[in-house]
Amino acid sequence: MKDLQTIDLSARIGALTLKNPIMPASGTFSEDLADVFDLDVLGAHVLKTIMHGTRAGNPTPRVCDIQSGMINAIGIPSKGIDYFRDEMLPYWSEFKAPLVVSISAHSYDEFARLCREVSLPGVTAIEANISCPNIEADGNAFAMRPDTTQEIVTRLRTETDLPLWAKLTPNTGEPVEVARAAEEAGADALVVANTMLGMSIDVDSRRPRLGNVMGGMSGPAIKPIALRMTYQCARACDIPVIGCGGISTLNDVLEFLIAGAQAVQVGTATFQSPTVMARLIAELEGWMTTQEITSLEEVIGSIEGSEAGVFE
Amino acid sequence: MKDLQTIDLSARIGALTLKNPIMPASGTFSEDLADVFDLDVLGAHVLKTIMHGTRAGNPTPRVCDIQSGMINAIGIPSKGIDYFRDEMLPYWSEFKAPLVVSISAHSYDEFARLCREVSLPGVTAIEANISCPNIEADGNAFAMRPDTTQEIVTRLRTETDLPLWAKLTPNTGEPVEVARAAEEAGADALVVANTMLGMSIDVDSRRPRLGNVMGGMSGPAIKPIALRMTYQCARACDIPVIGCGGISTLNDVLEFLIAGAQAVQVGTATFQSPTVMARLIAELEGWMTTQEITSLEEVIGSIEGSEAGVFE
Amino acid sequence: MTYIPTTVSVPVPQGLRPRCSEATCRVVSNTPVNGEYRLLTLDAPEAILDCQPGQFFQLLCPAPEGENPFLRRPMSIYGYDKSAGRLEFLYKIAGAGTRGLATLRPDDTFNVLGPLGQGFSMPDDWQNLMLVARGVGLATLAPLARMAQERGRKLTAICSARRPELAMSVELFESYGAEVIVVHDEDGSSTPEALRPLIEARIAKGDVDAFYTCGSSRLLRMLQDLGESHGIPGEIAMEQQMACGLGMCQACVRSFRVGDRIIQRRVCREGPVFPISEAM
Amino acid sequence: MTYIPTTVSVPVPQGLRPRCSEATCRVVSNTPVNGEYRLLTLDAPEAILDCQPGQFFQLLCPAPEGENPFLRRPMSIYGYDKSAGRLEFLYKIAGAGTRGLATLRPDDTFNVLGPLGQGFSMPDDWQNLMLVARGVGLATLAPLARMAQERGRKLTAICSARRPELAMSVELFESYGAEVIVVHDEDGSSTPEALRPLIEARIAKGDVDAFYTCGSSRLLRMLQDLGESHGIPGEIAMEQQMACGLGMCQACVRSFRVGDRIIQRRVCREGPVFPISEAM
Ligand SMILES: Cc1cc2nc3c(=O)[nH]c(=O)nc-3n(C[C@H](O)[C@H](O)[C@H](O)COP(=O)(O)OP(=O)(O)OC[C@H]3O[C@@H](n4cnc5c(N)ncnc54)[C@H](O)[C@@H]3O)c2cc1C
Ligand SMILES: Cc1cc2nc3c(=O)[nH]c(=O)nc-3n(C[C@H](O)[C@H](O)[C@H](O)COP(=O)(O)OP(=O)(O)OC[C@H]3O[C@@H](n4cnc5c(N)ncnc54)[C@H](O)[C@@H]3O)c2cc1C
Ligand SMILES: Cc1cc2nc3c(=O)[nH]c(=O)nc-3n(C[C@H](O)[C@H](O)[C@H](O)COP(=O)(O)O)c2cc1C
Ligand SMILES: Cc1cc2nc3c(=O)[nH]c(=O)nc-3n(C[C@H](O)[C@H](O)[C@H](O)COP(=O)(O)O)c2cc1C
Ligand code: FES
Ligand code: FES
After folding, report:
1. Are residues D219 and D132 in the same domain?
2. How far apart are CA B66 and CA C175, in angstroms?
3. What is the spatial distance between Cα A190 and Cα D41, in angstroms, rounded to a whole number?
4. DSSP code at position C276
5. N- to C-terminal Cα distance for chain B?
6. How far D211 CA sits from the closest chain C CA (Å)?
7. How far apart are CA A71 and CA A125, in angstroms?
8. What is the arithmetic mean of pLDDT over D184-189?
9. B283 pLDDT exceeds 90?
């Protein structure tokens, strides 16, 4: 029997060590959750994507539910960089958990500028939400293609010394090429992945159920897609992968770790149960104890018998 | 009150008129279902994809379930063209419902040859499953890109005078461009869409839950993706779209019709309830009666207020 | 499958008790009221019963046959009693979620999250209160009646309905000492044109310090108008599609007119109760 | 939501009654047997009770808390009685689906599809039958005992288990007149080495015309070997992951040795019962 005193939940994301591998997904977390549980139990804090200026976001209704998940078209309502620096950063700096700031923009220059300006003391890492439409590429998200990914990550890399995470989209047909492009351009980690584009219609009114017509699917329905991409990216790249998509149970967390993720982000599950992240951390520790596993390294990437076939 | 004697369920797929818009999806239907209900109630019969030679298919386990759906990696076990001609075609020719033969291949030449050879009396239309890996494009499916789609559909078009349906994949990042390429190359209809690539891991054994590691997701979990693509393709193309993905209730059928589909294919739902297609036809007729709708044309593409926003 | 501990205690911020929490409640009863509505009475833990009228809960609705309501559904508190451990919701069946609620039978358990949002305020200078609402909106305003009685305020409740017998909560309002006026569509007494003089007569008598309303945008516009002309403040409870219910997702925003600016606020967090004058 | 008729009758092929059908059954009881297993007894419509031993049903398992078994689960018929309208399954909790089954309580209803597949055959020249099985495999072989008695065959049942008290279906086999031999791991009597002489002694006495087995691959290999040496045929019921259960999806294939060729067959359609000699 191993010494279970030494159970170590810490997760290494490049140079960064998180005290555990559980953190929120951008856009599903805010200071409001601090009323519900002690947010310092989390491995990191990841904020809703901010953009440079102030923006309103999309028309309502902004969410609808689907089988085993939801679709959102919140957009990125943003109070801008000044509000972030003056109001949000001081609040989040009070916590011990590392702060990850998600940023986005519609053009290379704006993105680069925002990246430079958010590289402030108190910020631990920057997550680049490159799933946002790029106006210089016909409105296609940067992360849809390897070339635009390479270009934007290269630009961001020159603007900051902070760890830079690139958040990929599952809507691309070339996830592995995009992941490699982000790695080559100097990303320190990959967040895999953002929401999947979907739609829902109200049959009685014959109207789309979202004000924006289409929106991003999240929740358990997309888990197999995010898990597959996590597996593909972890095999193809040397930088750490942070899994994200539909994670709501300990079993889900373990699937992503076994597939090769170093850590995971939890989004929609928090809407069903606000305390889920705190529970997952405790459950993960409980599971490691039962299994006599003292370090996550014994789990991460431990998938067996996966000589990948060709899918047809 | 309209004359409800004249309720007309017929669906027009180009030159072809089906007596109703409900048909099975390839790979989820076979003569075995004839033991359960009268298959002539269906709008059409769509067979499991055949390839030219005999093939074994993938290792087991070939299926696993996920939240609100399943993943399959059956592969395409095929008894080849001779078996099709000599054994299957005579059997299916006995039915009144039109016969749609799904074909695939790993190269342009093989695909073209198979297309020519299945263009036999008794076959009503050919569905080209271009979601199959193309050996001449690094194993990427033909339907992943507009150029390979254009090339294969052009080749197939020259080989047959039968209506030619192109079945698209949701794994591409360019669904609209692919749909347009198929249309320009002469496809008579689009089937939107095939399965979404996914994965599942058994945490206890740390093994993938499919023999082939990755597989295709189907069932309600993918419905919002297929519906979104149906909507996108129906707006972008003039040829008819046949919706497919996660359809299991009357509400689902109506969502696809409202989004612009002329007809729908039902796959995984038949595994949960073998009689579901017969029930959907009766329910559709019942709904039209209640709503005093006499023709599907009043429903197809009738989506309101859908000035599409940009998703971010 | 994997080992999953059944209960894990979650660390709560130092010195702060959770403002809202998840709780599993036992169904005491779930019975039809007035044809269109149902009253759900729960046996609820004390921890979630520090409620204010106007607040709401997010209910994790059970799945009815063939449907799967994924998101929680917001529902106003219809009644609560901390000492008795009782929590009540009055709901109308609208879709999958409320159909799921309707399947709950006594002794079933299900999960609620709350109390959420900001309730109604009742400043000291609001002595004579007038409540005007319609349909399920009356559910949201119901707990105001008790609050008014407890604080010794005078309450007039105008209950609007399609037919007189469909007017909700009349007995409940009366039991807390409110004067109840039922208006309805059948005799035309519920139109803004008919209501307005009725209310203006009360205002003229000095009987109205503040309005409370909920639901109908026609009523809102009338009360905004009356409020502006006569300098009478008031509060409205509003609705919007929600995901988190806590303020995190920004799904539930609505526009408000504040001075000459239009701003967006989250119904779940800054609301669901807002000044009548700012609502749009 | 949309109008959905509750019952729609589905046209059945002319002159052919459906070989299998979906039916909603009422749970009569669902009780633990022997610690590891549970016996589920259903009140089932006549239409699905033209069963053969060795056939199976696809059960639409209810969702246990926090899980959602999507595909139907295959389960052998443990018992059936057309006149009494009874259908029984004996199952072991393995994962989400069987955990869901375990939640069923008397008077709950749930949906089954069947009977499916090809059952055991019992040709006239198989007069002395020997059944060798272990664990839940004995559930699959249980209805053979009644069939053997009805046809006046002599049946010897070798029931293997970890411990003697865990041997399944012993009373059931005995009640249909079978001779039961319990072997187990504790005294080593269940190893192929110990079983082999036992069976060979019976063969020598002319007591074995055919074998039936299920489940264990060690038992299979032993019986294939014995069968080949002594020219004794037999049948095995096999398992494989399934989706449709009807033959449509080709999920459930296994390899079989037929002459010198290896071919693939669908467990749900050509099986689940196959010749012992061809199984792999
Ligand atoms: C703060 C608040 C308090 C409420 N109080 C009550 C109450 O006391 N009694 C009552 O009967 N109803 C109340 N509602 C409305 C109630 O939330 C909806 O009727 C319910 O969510 C409908 O869910 P459904 O699945 O049955 O219907 P569906 O129409 O199928 O719902 C689909 C989606 O739309 C959302 N939705 C539908 N209608 C509304 C609505 N009016 N407001 C917000 N979201 C909606 C649902 O939550 C769900 O996400 C309240 C709403 C809010 C925001
Ligand atoms: C023809 C046939 C007859 C069977 N009869 C019985 C019986 O009488 N009693 C009994 O206890 N079990 C029987 N089984 C096995 C039973 O089907 C599985 O134990 C059950 O499906 C497990 O489902 P689960 O969700 O509880 O477990 P999980 O392991 O979570 O199942 C995951 C998936 O794997 C499949 N699966 C798991 N084990 C098996 C298996 N052994 N065979 C086929 N698929 C499997 C499930 O159907 C499901 O799709 C039979 C299997 C077959 C094929
Ligand atoms: C309401 C909502 C808002 C979101 N906003 C953002 C965002 O601003 N930036 C971003 O990178 N991802 C955003 N996401 C995506 C999530 O971070 C996450 O990638 C996705 O939801 C998948 O994870 P989940 O299934 O656990 O929710 C949002 C998701 C939801 C549901
Ligand atoms: C078991 C299985 C086998 C399939 N085989 C094929 C196939 O051979 N050819 C094909 O074009 N699609 C195949 N498909 C995809 C379906 O035709 C359909 O496009 C997909 O399952 C989505 O629809 P559904 O959600 O209604 O099942 C298969 C799907 C399943 C589940
Ligand atoms: S519902 Fe999420 S912010 Fe209001
Ligand atoms: S389970 Fe589908 S063919 Fe056997």
Report:
1. yes
2. 52
3. 52
4. G
5. 45
6. 35
7. 28
8. 90
9. yes
Of the residues C216, C237, C258, which one is the last residue of a structural domain?
C237
Mean pLDDT score, C163-190? 88
Q: Quick one: pLDDT at residue B235?
A: 96
Output the pLDDT for position A56.
Answer: 87
- Residues D135 and D207 occupy one common structural domain: yes
Residue D152 confidence class, pLDDT cut points 50, 70, 90: very high
CATH number of A4-298: 3.20.20.70
pLDDT on residue C13: 55
CA separation for the pair B246, B217 (Å, rounded): 10
Greatest CA separation for chain A? 63
CB contact under 8 A, B311 and A216: yes
Per-residue pLDDT at C7 exceeds 60? no
CA distance B234 to B226: 12
Please work out whether the CB of residue D114 comes within 6 Å of at least one atom of ligand 6.
no
In a domain, D33, yes or no: yes
Q: How many CB pairs under 8 A join A and D?
A: 6
Which residues from B are below 8 Å from D2, CB to CB?
250-251, 254, 287
Chosen domain end from C54, C86, C116? C116
Q: Which residues of B are known to be catalytic?
A: 132
User: Is C264 inside a domain boundary?
Assistant: no
Which residue among A60, A62, A63, A64 is best mutated to probe the pocket of ligand 1, counting the most ligand atoms within 8 A of its Cβ?
A64
Ligand 4 neighbours by CB, cut-off 6 Å: B 25-28, 48-49, 72, 74, 76, 102, 129, 167, 194-195, 218-219, 222, 244-247, 266-269; D 243, 249
Q: Quick check: D68 and A203 CB within 8 A?
A: no
A199 and B259 within 8 Å at the Cβ level: the answer is yes
Provide the pLDDT confidence category of residue A40 given band limits of 50, 70 and 90.
Answer: very high
Query: Structural domain boundaries of chain A?
Result: 4-298
Q: What is the pLDDT of residues C53-64, one digit of tens each?
A: 999 999 999 998
Quote the pLDDT of residue A310. Answer: 52
For residue C6, the model assigns a pLDDT of 40
* Mean pLDDT across chain D: 89
Which residues pair with residue D120 across a beta bridge?
A: none
Tokens representing residue B234 in the block:
């129906």
Provide, as residue numbers in chain D, all residues whose Cβ is less than 8 Å from the Cβ of B102: none
Domain ranges, residue C221: 128-237
ipTM above 0.85, yes or no: yes
Asked whether the beta carbons of residue C251 and residue A60 sit closer than 8 angstroms, the reply is yes
Give the residue from chain C lying closest to A68, CA to CA: C70
Do C100 and C29 fall within a single domain? yes
Instruction: List, in sequence order, every beta strand (DSSP E) within C3-140.
Output: 21-33, 37-43, 56-59, 73-76, 79-81, 86-92, 109-116, 128-134
Tens of pLDDT, residue by residue over D115-127, are: 999 999 999 999 9
* In-domain check, residue C279: no
- Nearest Cα neighbor of A208 from B287, B259, D3 is B259
- DSSP conformational letter for B78: E
Query: For position C2, what pLDDT does the model report?
Result: 37
The number of folded domains in chain C is 2
- Does one domain contain both C84 and C63? yes
| Domain contains D264 | no
pLDDT number for residue B311: 52
C248 lines ligand 5 (CB under 6 A): yes
Residue D272 CB less than 6 A away from ligand 2: yes
pLDDT at B310: 52
pLDDT in tens, C43-93: 999 999 999 999 999 999 999 888 889 999 999 999 999 999 999 999 999
CATH of the domain at D143: 3.40.50.80
Name the amino acid, one letter, at B159. Answer: E
| Nearest-angstrom CA–CA distance, A137 and A117 | 24
Q: Contacts of residue B36 in chain D, CB cutoff 8 Å? A: 18-21, 246
CB of C243 sitting under 6 A from ligand 3: yes
Verify that D73 and D151 share a domain, yes or no.
Answer: no
Substitution target from A36, A217, A255, A279 for chain C, most C beta carbons within 10 A: A36
C190/C167 same-domain check: yes
pTM of the model: 0.95
Degrees (nearest 5) of the Cα angle B248, B249, B254? 115
